[in-house]
Amino acid sequence: MTVPSTPITRRPEARAANSLRPLAITRGYAPYAEGSALIQLGGTHVLCTASVLDKVPGFMKGQGRGWVTAEYGMLPRATHTRGDREAARGKQSGRTQEIQRLVGRSLRAVFDLEALGERTLQIDCDVIQADGGTRCASITGAWVAAADAVDWLIARGDLSASPLRDHVAAVSVGLVQGQPLLDLDYPEDSGCDADVNVVMTGSGHLVEVQGTAEGLAFSRAELDHLLDLAQAGIGQLVEGQKACRAG
Amino acid sequence: MTVPSTPITRRPEARAANSLRPLAITRGYAPYAEGSALIQLGGTHVLCTASVLDKVPGFMKGQGRGWVTAEYGMLPRATHTRGDREAARGKQSGRTQEIQRLVGRSLRAVFDLEALGERTLQIDCDVIQADGGTRCASITGAWVAAADAVDWLIARGDLSASPLRDHVAAVSVGLVQGQPLLDLDYPEDSGCDADVNVVMTGSGHLVEVQGTAEGLAFSRAELDHLLDLAQAGIGQLVEGQKACRAG
Amino acid sequence: MTVPSTPITRRPEARAANSLRPLAITRGYAPYAEGSALIQLGGTHVLCTASVLDKVPGFMKGQGRGWVTAEYGMLPRATHTRGDREAARGKQSGRTQEIQRLVGRSLRAVFDLEALGERTLQIDCDVIQADGGTRCASITGAWVAAADAVDWLIARGDLSASPLRDHVAAVSVGLVQGQPLLDLDYPEDSGCDADVNVVMTGSGHLVEVQGTAEGLAFSRAELDHLLDLAQAGIGQLVEGQKACRAG
Amino acid sequence: MTVPSTPITRRPEARAANSLRPLAITRGYAPYAEGSALIQLGGTHVLCTASVLDKVPGFMKGQGRGWVTAEYGMLPRATHTRGDREAARGKQSGRTQEIQRLVGRSLRAVFDLEALGERTLQIDCDVIQADGGTRCASITGAWVAAADAVDWLIARGDLSASPLRDHVAAVSVGLVQGQPLLDLDYPEDSGCDADVNVVMTGSGHLVEVQGTAEGLAFSRAELDHLLDLAQAGIGQLVEGQKACRAG
Amino acid sequence: MTVPSTPITRRPEARAANSLRPLAITRGYAPYAEGSALIQLGGTHVLCTASVLDKVPGFMKGQGRGWVTAEYGMLPRATHTRGDREAARGKQSGRTQEIQRLVGRSLRAVFDLEALGERTLQIDCDVIQADGGTRCASITGAWVAAADAVDWLIARGDLSASPLRDHVAAVSVGLVQGQPLLDLDYPEDSGCDADVNVVMTGSGHLVEVQGTAEGLAFSRAELDHLLDLAQAGIGQLVEGQKACRAG
Amino acid sequence: MTVPSTPITRRPEARAANSLRPLAITRGYAPYAEGSALIQLGGTHVLCTASVLDKVPGFMKGQGRGWVTAEYGMLPRATHTRGDREAARGKQSGRTQEIQRLVGRSLRAVFDLEALGERTLQIDCDVIQADGGTRCASITGAWVAAADAVDWLIARGDLSASPLRDHVAAVSVGLVQGQPLLDLDYPEDSGCDADVNVVMTGSGHLVEVQGTAEGLAFSRAELDHLLDLAQAGIGQLVEGQKACRAG
C-alpha cells in the first residue's frame, strides 16, 4: 500500500497528506461515569462517556443479551459560528441522528452482546470543540470509554470476561482538489470534492464505509486510494487507544 | 470485472446472485405532479414525484441557484407487520431522515443547480410496498420523476437547457452467508452479514457508498467484490431509466 | 324518492347530477395486510388496509371486547399543488384528525365489538390521488379491507362467525349554484355552497351526517333533497362493495 | 312541526323532552376583551371572548378581507374527573381541534368577511364547567362576544356598518332509549344512541348538522324528528341572545 | 415593624402602599372538584381546584407517601392583549413552568406527605382574569382548595387526621420609583425596579423568597423593607383564608 | 457582618462553613467564541461562552438597543447517574428553563442595553461536571465570558465604551441540619432544609434572591444569616473574576 507522503504545503502546520492531526486521549475525564475519555484530534475535542444501565430496550427484555447504544451532541459554540441548541429547538437534527446511529452500530460491531449480559452500555459523545471529523473522533474515543466501563464491570465481579472482541476506530479521508488527504479538518472538509468516513476494527476489517461525493462523483480508483489512506490512519488511532489504555 | 453468475438455489424464483429483481418503471403515475414515476423492483414499490416549487430555502435566496431536496415516507402497512405512522407519532425516525437526506444528496450530485435557476425540485418518495432496498429504489425512481419535471420546465419555456448532467441510480449489495448478492430482498437483507448501498452515475462514478457490517466486519476484498456487483446492477437500472424515458 | 336525473352540462364527461364517478375497487392491493382495497372513484384513489393487531387500547384491556380504529394520510403530491408532509411537520392537521376519527366511528357502527374478541382492527386509509371526497372513499374502501380481514380471521379459525353486522359506505353531496349534486369532485367541492358527507349502512340507516354551509346556510328542504341523493348513491356504492367481494 | 311535550320523569328537575336547560348569558364577563360572554346552560358554563387583532392569516394578506377563527379549551377540572391539561401534554386532542374548527366555521357563516375589513376576530371558548353540550354552548356564547366586539369596532369608528348578517346558535339533540331529547346533559349524552349537533342561523337556515350514531344507526324519520326539536331549541337560544344584547 | 401607611396618590382607588387589593375567596366554585376556590384579588381572578388522584408519580410508588403537585394556566384573553394559547402552541412557556413548580413546592411545604397517604393532590390554578400577582394569588387560593379536598378525604373516612400542618399564602411586593409597595397590580409590576414574591406559612416562616431586580439592583435594606411589607400582607391573606373556611 | 468561621468537620476536606470550594476560571476555553470561560468550583465545572450575534429578538427590532440572553444545558453524564439528554427527549425541563431565564436576567442586570447597540450577546452555559451549584457557577462564569466578548467588540471598534456597568456573581447558601453553609455541594444541597441562591453585583447590590424551603420553612433571622454568608462569598467570587481578567 503506497500513499503519497509528500507534505502538502496547504495543510496547516505542514501536515502531510497521510498524517493524522495530533492525537491525545485523556481517560477518566468524567469522573462519575463508569468509563470516559476526552479525545482531542487537533482542534476537535469530544468527551465520550460510557454509562452502565441495568436495563435493556423493551424489544430485548428477557433474552439475556445486552445492548450498546449511543447519543451525540454538540455544544452550541463548539463551532466557528454558534449553532442552535437542539434541546431548545425541541428536536435533534437529521445529522445528529445519523451520527449517533453510526456510533452505536460501530461499537456494537466489536461487542459480544451475549457476553455483555442483560444490561445497556450507553455511550454519550459530546463535542466540546469542533474542527471536522467529530463523528470519527466520537467512535475512536467511545471505544476507550467503553473499554474502561467493561473493566469496571469486571472489577466489580459483574463480568468474568470481556465482551469486547476487538478495537474499533474511525477516520475521515477525502479528495481535496483531486488530492487524497487523511483526517480532514473543517476547512478541508468544507471544500472537498468527496469524503469518506471509514470505521475499522483493530484487525483491519471494515465496519462502516460512508463515502459521499460533495461535488463531483468519484471513481473506483479514487475510492481505493482513500481506503488505503484510511486504513493506515486507523492503524495509528488504534495504537493511540492501546497506548492510553496501557498508560 | 467478473462476478459469479451461477444461480443460487436459495434465491426466490431461481434468481442469480448477480441478477436484479424484475424492474418496472411507470412514468406519470401521479398525474398532478410535474414529474412522477412508480418504480417496482420485485416486491418493492415506490411512488416518486418531483414537484417544481417557485422558491428556495432561506439560506439560498437571491443567489440565482436552485435546490433539489427529498422527503421519504412509508405507508404503515407497506411491510409485513404494520409500522407506526410517523405523522401520528409526531416525528420522523432517524432512519427516515437518513434516507431522505441520502436521496436529496444523490439527486443533487447530477444536477447543475445554477442551470436549474432559483427554484426547488422537491422530490417525494413514498413506499407503497416494501420488500427491501426501498432507499435505492427511491433514488432510481426519483431520477425519472426529476427528469420528467425538467422536461416540463423546458416545455413551458422556463428552462432552455437541461440542468441534469447524468443519470443516477442505486442498488444494494450484500454478503449473505459469505456470498455476495445483488439487490437484496427483505429476507436477504435481514439475514446478511454486511450490506452496501451504492449510488452511481450513468457514467459509472460513485456518488455514495454506504457499507455496514451487520454482523461481522468485512474485508477490503469483499468490499471490492460487492462494488463490482453493484456497478453491473446499476448499469442495468440506468438502462431501465433510459428505456422508460424513451418509451 | 325523486332526484333530478337530467345531465348537467357543466359536470365533466357529461356526468348526471345524481351519478357517481366511475368506481373501481381492487381487493388485496397491499399483499402483506390481512385485508386491503384500492378504491378508485374517478380521480380519487385511496389505499385502504386493515391490520389485525393482538392488543386493544389500554382503557379496554381485559374486557374481552375488540376495537376498530383508523388513521388517515395523504401523499404530499396526491393533490394539484404539493401539500406539507405531516410527518415532517411533526403533527397531523386538524382536518386529518377529524377524518380519521370519522372513519373509525363509521366502521365501528357496523361491528359487533364483543364478537370481534380482544383484538384491534387497525384501518389505514392513504390517499394516493385526491380529486375530492377522500374521506367518503376511505370509508367505502375501508369496509372492504375490514371485511377481508374478518375473512382472514375466520379462515385461520380465530373467529367462528363474522362480527360485521352490515355494510357501511359514504358519499358527499352538495349544493353547487343551488343545484344538488352527488359525489362532488374537487372543483365542485371547492365551489359549492354547502356540502354534506353522509355515512349509511347497507340497510339504509344513517351512521353520520356532516353537513356544512361553506357559503350560505341551507334550508331543511335542501338538506332533505341532498340526503335523498346521498341515499341513492350509497346504495350503488354498497352494490360495488358486494360485487368486488363476490368477484 | 309537532314535538313531544310530555315531561319525561327521568330528566333532572322534571325537564321536558323539548326543553332547554336554564339559560343565562352574562355579557362583558372578561373586561379586557373587545367582546365577551359567559354562557351558562344548566351545568355547562363557557367563557367566550372575542379579540380584535390587526392582522389576518398569511394566506389572506392584502385582500382587504377579514377572518374569524376560534380556539377552544377546557379547564382540567371542568369535568367530573380531572382531564389532562392539553398545554402540559403538548398538544390539543383531535376532539378539541374538531370543536374549534366547528366554532370558527359557524361564526364565519354569519359574517360578511369583506365588510369586516382586514382584521381578525379571534374567538376563544374556554369551558369552566362541563355538563354536556359544550361545543354548542360555545357557538351560542361566541356569537354574543362577537357581536359585542363588532359594536366596539363601530363605536371606535373602525367600522361604519356591522358585518354580522344574522344570529347563529347551536344545540345538541339525541335519541335516548329511542326518545328524542333536546339539549342533552352529560349523562344523557353518554348514554344516547345517536346525537346530532345542529347549528342554525336566526332565520332558521342550517349552518352545520353533525349527526353521529353512537350505538345503532338511525333512520331518516328519526333525523327529521331530531332536527325539528333542534330548530325549536335554537329559536329559544336566539331569543336569549337578543334578550341579553337588549339588556 | 413599621411600614409606610401614607396613601400614595398614584395607586388606583387611593390604595395605601401597605394595603392589599380587595380580597374575595369563593369556596366550591368548581362543583365537581374535591376542593376548589375562586380567589379574586382586585382585578386578578384565579380558579384553583384540588383533585384527589389515587396514584402517585412513578418514582414514589410503594413508599406509602403522598404527593402534592400543581399546574398553572392562563386563559388567552385574561390579559389586556390576547396571549397565545399554550395548548395550541404545543408547549408551556418557561414562565408557566416556573410558576407551577413554585405553587407545587409552596403547598408541599405545609403538607405532611406521609400523613397524606399514597395519593396525589393535584392542584390546578387557572387565571380567568389577570391584573398582576397571579402566581401569588394562585398559592393563596390553592391552599383553600387543598384544605377543602382534605376535608373531603376526612369526611369520606379516607383520612383520620389532616396532613395540613399550616396555612400558606403569598404576595408580591416591589419597589416602584424607589417606594416599597404591597401587592402590585399589573401596571405597577410592569414599571417596578424590583419585585419580590414572598411565600409564607401562617406562623410567619418563609417558604419561598423570589426577588428580582427588573432594572436596578436593590440593597439589603430595601429587601428587608419589602419583606416586612410582605409579612404584614400575608397575615391578612391568611386571615382571609381562615374567614372563608369558617364561613 | 459576622459569620461562623469554625470549620465543620462534616464538610469534605475540612471546608469551613463560610468557605467557598476551590475556584478556578480559565478564560478562552472555547477558542471560537467571542468570549468564554471554564469555571471550576470544586467538582462543578461549567463551560460558559458568549457569542455576539448581529440581530435582536423580533420584539426589539429597530429600537437601537441590544439584548443579553442565556441558554443552559447539562451533559447527560455530568452527574452521578446518567440523566436524559434533553435534545433526545425533545424538550427542555422546567428546571433548565428556570435556570436559563435566571442567568439571562442576572447578566442583563449589569448591562446597559442601549450602550450594547442592536446586537445580542448569547450566553451558553454547559455543565461538564456537576456537584451542586451549577446555576450559580453559570452566572459567575458567564460574566467573565461576557466581559471578554465586550472586549472583543471594543477591540474591533464595534463599541467605543463598555456597556458592562458592574460585576455580577452568584452563590448558593443553605441550612444543613440548622447550620448555615456557604456554597453547597451536591450532597449538602440534597440534604438541606432550605437553600437560597443569591445573585449580587460587585458593589454588593442584590440582583436575585431565590430562597426555597426544601423541608421546613425558615425564619427571617435565618434568611438574614444566609444572606450575610452569601454576600461574603460573592465578594470572593468577584475577586476571582477580577483576578482571572487581570491575568
TrEMBL record, chains A, B, C, D, E, F:
Q: Which GO terms describe its molecular function?
A: 3'-5'-RNA exonuclease activity; tRNA binding; tRNA nucleotidyltransferase activity
Enzyme group, top EC level?
transferase
Residues holding phosphate: R95, G133, T134, R135
> CDD domains of this UniProt entry?
RNase_PH_bact (cd11362)
Biological process terms in GO annotation: rRNA 3'-end processing; rRNA catabolic process; tRNA processing
Which Enzyme Commission number(s) are on file for it? Answer: 2.7.7.56
Domain Exoribonuclease phosphorolytic intervals:
20-149, 168-232
> InterPro entries attached here?
ExoRNase_PH_dom1, ExoRNase_PH_dom2, ExoRNase_PH_dom2_sf, PNPase/RNase_PH_dom_sf, Ribosomal_Su5_D2-typ_SF, RNase_PH, RNase_PH_bac-type, RNase_PH_CS
Instruction: Give yes or no: UniProt keyword RNA-binding.
Output: yes
Taxonomically, the superkingdom here is Bacteria
Which reactions fall under this protein's catalytic activity? tRNA(n+1) + phosphate = tRNA(n) + a ribonucleoside 5'-diphosphate
Which keywords does UniProt give here? Nucleotidyltransferase, RNA-binding, rRNA processing, Transferase, tRNA processing, tRNA-binding
Q: Name one Pfam family in it.
A: RNase_PH_C
KW Aminoacyl-tRNA synthetase (keyword) present: no
Q: What does this protein do?
A: Phosphorolytic 3'-5' exoribonuclease that plays an important role in tRNA 3'-end maturation. Removes nucleotide residues following the 3'-CCA terminus of tRNAs; can also add nucleotides to the ends of RNA molecules by using nucleoside diphosphates as substrates, but this may not be physiologically important. Probably plays a role in initiation of 16S rRNA degradation (leading to ribosome degradation) during starvation.
| Oligomer status and interactors | Homohexameric ring arranged as a trimer of dimers.
Family of the protein in this entry = Belongs to the RNase PH family.
Q: What is this protein called?
A: Ribonuclease PH
Organism lineage: Bacteria, Pseudomonadati, Pseudomonadota, Betaproteobacteria, Burkholderiales
